[in-house]
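RECORD TYPE: protein structure
NAME: Poly(3-hydroxybutyrate) depolymerase
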Amino acid sequence: MRLRLLVLAASSLLMTAAACDSASDEPAPTPDAGTQGPDPTAGDVAPPDRTSCTGLTVAAGTYDWTVEHGGRTRAYRVHVPTGYDATKPTPVVFSFHGFASTEVEQEQLSQLSTLGDTEGFIAVYPRGLNSREVFGQGDTDSRGWNGVACCGPAQIANVDDVGFVDALLADLDTRVCTDPRRVFASGFSNGGFFSYRLACERAQRFAAIAPVAGMEGLTDCNPSRAIPVLHFHGTADPTILYDGGSNLTSVGGRPYPSAAESVRRFAERNGCTGPEQQTYQQGNSTCVAATGCAPESATASLCTVTGGKHAWPGQTGYNEGTPDLDATQAMWRFFQARPRP
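PREDICTED:
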């Protein structure tokens, strides 16, 4: 399989940055309905509970759907699991790809569709915008998300990707029977940054998040409730630095905190006052959780892969992902125990 998966290609990002350079011969893009507005938390409203669904006809399988948002046609892939019952509310796991990747590659990397067939959840893989779609020019291999600190054309142009997710959720509900209390988010790298943003701005829509190799990139994060976080990161990641940094600023990004600080912030927001507890250890992989949270299930956990690169733990075929920890299995176990209250 072809896996580029957020290698922060200088040529792609520089081309993107050039597209919005005020010194360029090209005019700056005109803001439209797809640009983030002044109140990004305005749509953070809990949907009504659901005990059953009627009139839905989609069966098990993989589908590529679109939804209109911000004057653009936005795409997403959905895997409906084997044994799916269209009348029964079903958990949903969103998985956001990294910069310069796609929803198809994210499905391959995460293997959430395969696990969904076994565990009975719907896997959703949204597609980010590229430079050509945002600015009308530039590299098509520059898809990404507005994760505030990272990365690419969506972040540079302040695209309303949170609004896109709102539109996607509404569209998804017309097609499959989702459980509003069991919708979760994960993502790799730039997609991990964006899953943190959803925790900050859509805590009523997402029950918990599990970023992989991506940090909390917001300067002002005030989730409407305590939201559980499970973060995976390698200490030798050369792209999104485990200890944080400003290596993205030359290509339009912003300084970002360390993995430990990203998790610590949510532990503080979640009222976690107890001691840290080791929850997993095998080989080069160790997970530690803040405890004494309110509620207790709102843990903030960090899984550290010592010597790990910019990789998805358990996916050994990409950037030497560790075999000592399976991020996909671990995040699903974490999600299962943490529906939205």
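COMMENT: Residues 56-226+309-336 form a domain with the Rossmann fold fold (CATH 3.40.50.1820).
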